[in-house]
Amino acid sequence: GGPRRLLLVSNSTLHGGGYLGHCQQHIQSFLGQKVKRVLLIPYALHDRDAYARTAREKFESLGYGLDSIHESCDPVEAVRKSEAIFIGGGNTFRLLKALYDNSLIHEIRKRVLEDGIPYMGSSAGTNVATISINTTNDMPIVYPPSLQALGLVPFNINPHYLDPDVKSTHMGETREERIRQYHEEPNTPPVLGLREGAMLLVEGDKATLQGVTGARLFLRGKKPTEHEPGTDFSFLLTDSNPLN
């Protein structure tokens, strides 16, 4: 476990609020006063300049400077010098491919797991913090060299988790059915379905569900279970995982 500190948010914008509005107090208590500048990795969206403007405005309003990695001539060096990393949402496949293309997987892992700098992800940025992006909701619009992600935690997350609508006549697969299909494959890790408005705080070997909505936990071969904010998910960090 080491000194890792992660804030893994399901979504950047909650209905009725602004960008990162629903989790801004969590961000401030997570980053604290020691962090002065945050490194944004905006690779999940095509328009990185616009992304950086939006994020910069928000983080500056919370008292933090923000540098975007796409403005740096040396992305690896930017990660090595960073005080905190924020990877936002967009397309998870595009994001992971860019992390591989820029040789950042190992560097980010080292900064977070060995050096203990705070890592915040939302949506796609939460997906890539886990073992793999197998449980993303996104379309594979580009082809990363691997679906293996940063592995900052030994399980997977499904952000924007949606419960089946009992009134809907839509006959497509529910999110739960898709996760069950994933678990039909051997040696697949747990999947935490984070509803919009939920986030997971990881500090060392402790993981706690935060936010305003709950989460649904899927373990291979077991019935899914429902969890409220405040749930201690630390066991997910220590469970022997075949992929770790």
Automatic annotation (TrEMBL):
Pfam families per record: Peptidase_S51
Keywords from the named record: Cytoplasm, Dipeptidase, Hydrolase, Protease, Serine protease
Family: Belongs to the peptidase S51 family.
One Gene Ontology MF term: serine-type peptidase activity
Subcellular localization: Cytoplasm
Major localization class: cytoplasm
Species this protein is from: Piprites chloris
Highest taxon of the lineage: Eukaryota
Catalysed reactions, semicolon-separated: Dipeptidase E catalyzes the hydrolysis of dipeptides Asp-|-Xaa. It does not act on peptides with N-terminal Glu, Asn or Gln, nor does it cleave isoaspartyl peptides
Summary of the function given for this chain in its UniProt record: Hydrolyzes dipeptides containing N-terminal aspartate residues.
EC id: 3.4.13.21
SUPFAM superfamilies referenced in this protein's UniProt entry, alphabetically: Class I glutamine amidotransferase-like (SSF52317)
GO cellular component term of the entry, any: cytoplasm
GO biological process, one term: proteolysis
Protein name: dipeptidase E
